[in-house]
Design goal:
seven-stranded mixed sheet; 24 strands; binds zinc ion; globular; EC 5.3.1.17; seven-stranded antiparallel sheet; Jelly Rolls; binds 4-deoxy-L-threo-hex-5-ulosuronic acid; 2 helices; 4-deoxy-L-threo-5-hexosulose-uronate ketol-isomerase activity; single chain; 44% strand; zinc
């Protein structure tokens, strides 16, 4: 069996505020997404977003159903985006091969029955949410993404946000990638919340000894998690999600929920954070 999953329940703000380091990590950190020759899923109760990893390591890996979806096929009632954070690979969808280069994303619509993740050296970060309509499979590339340049060198938050799904027809998934100017380490500062959508972050391109201090919690009750290379964070709809790295990094952000409006977020005034 090359597919495995675990389940994360939805945690409320009061419960999260009472947690120590181990409990926070068990509930909000995913530190074992990528294993050679395996598809691994974390099925969450936040908007039923599933966050996964697929590392083909030679033979292509099939997308297999997991019990929590309650369907015969994984994508019977879901859509999926695979982000390649490794070397070039190929994803076959119902017999059609799609070349997926480094930092490319492939959107796969509801109803695709036979999906295979391939490519020696490819490493796929997977995001899947329930769908209500079938949209065409489509390759999304950084060059075609909507780019937002934010922040400044003075505040160590100069960065470019690439909205890969800006003109994509999806049911719920909104996904992009954020990269930094050299020396800038703060993401999503000023911070925000968006109660209509949960969010997941994957931090990658970190040096082995580097980490991101990720901040979560309600704006006036924050907690932190130390996050290493290729680890992911689940952000409940009520939580801020931001962080500062000890060195350079890149991250992928992904949302699912009641709308697909990137701008539907409430900025937290800097003086309100505590
Ligand atoms: O809801 C949007 C997400 O949190 C990210 O797009 C934020 C981000 O990449 C950043 O400000 O650095
Ligand atoms: Zn956000």
């Amino acid at each position: 069996m090359s597919t495995d999953f675990d389940i994360r329940f939805a945690i409320d703000p009061g419960t999260a505020a009472a947690m120590g380091t181990d409990e926070l990590r068990e509930n909000f950190l995913i530190d074992d997404l990528f294993a050679a020759g395996e598809v691994r899923w974390t099925y969450t109760h936040y908007d039923r977003m599933a966050v996964g990893g697929a590392v083909p390591n030679g033979a292509p890996l099939a997308l297999e159903a997991i019990k929590p979806t309650g369907t015969a096929g994984f994508l019977d009632r879901r859509e999926l985006i695979a982000v390649n954070i490794g070397a070039s690979g190929t994803i076959s969808v119902d017999g059609t091969d799609h070349a997926v280069g480094p930092r490319d994303m492939l959107y796969i619509g509801m109803g695709a029955a036979d999906v295979r993740f391939g490519g020696a050296g490819a490493k796929y970060y997977l995001l899947s949410a329930p769908a209500h309509a079938s949209h065409p499979t489509r390759l999304l590339q950084q060059s075609g993404a909507k780019r937002l340049d934010m922040g400044s060198a003075e505040t160590a938050n100069e960065r470019s946000i690439f909205q890969y799904t800006n003109d994509l027809k999806s049911c719920q998934l909104v996904v992009g990638l954020t990269q930094f100017a050299p020396g800038s380490v703060w993401n999503t500062m000023p911070a925000h919340v968006h109660d209509r959508r949960m969010e997941a972050y994957l931090y990658f391109d970190l040096k082995p000894d580097a980490f991101v201090v990720h901040l979560m919690g309600e704006p006036d009750e924050t907690r932190h998690l130390i996050v290493r290379n290729e680890q992911a964070i689940l952000s409940p709809p009520w939580s801020i999600h931001c962080g500062a790295g000890t060195g350079a990094y890149t991250f992928i952000w992904a949302m699912a929920g009641d709308n697909v409006d990137y701008t539907d977020a409430e900025k937290v005034p800097m003086e309100d954070l505590r």
